[in-house]
Task: inverse folding
């Protein structure tokens, strides 16, 4: 990642898009294992971590919060969701309909993040002209 203030928002958007990409893989893995006995669905923890990192400094502007963000410390973390819960007798807790909806929502989020990244680069390009 680029370490200059001009790219702070781009770095955050990139990190968030990376997390959405990883979530896409995790959801796809959940769908692939929807009939595997004993499989427990997984997900990615990232958005709460980002919100907590940005919310630590209450009285700063968003620009200052993003500038002060330790972007390298933000990492998407895979976790097992509802490990003690199961939809079926075989111990699997994957609901295929929920996973498909979650996958579609995540793909929309990813596409929106990519659009935001493209817009940020267009803004930088406009400023450099």
Result:
């Amino acid at each position: 990642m680029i370490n200059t203030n001009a790219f702070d928002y781009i770095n955050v958007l990139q990190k968030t898009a990376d997390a959405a990409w990883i979530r896409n893989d995790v959801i796809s893995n959940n769908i692939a294992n929807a009939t595997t006995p004993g499989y427990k669905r997984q997900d990615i923890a990232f958005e709460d971590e980002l919100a907590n990192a940005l919310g630590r400094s209450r009285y700063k502007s968003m620009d200052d919060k993003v500038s002060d963000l330790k972007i390298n410390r933000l990492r998407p973390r895979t976790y097992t969701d509802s490990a003690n819960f199961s939809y079926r007798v075989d111990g699997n807790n994957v609901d295929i309909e929920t996973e498909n909806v979650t996958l579609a929502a995540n793909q929309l989020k990813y596409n929106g993040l990519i659009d935001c990244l493209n817009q940020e680069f267009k803004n930088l390009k406009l400023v450099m002209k």
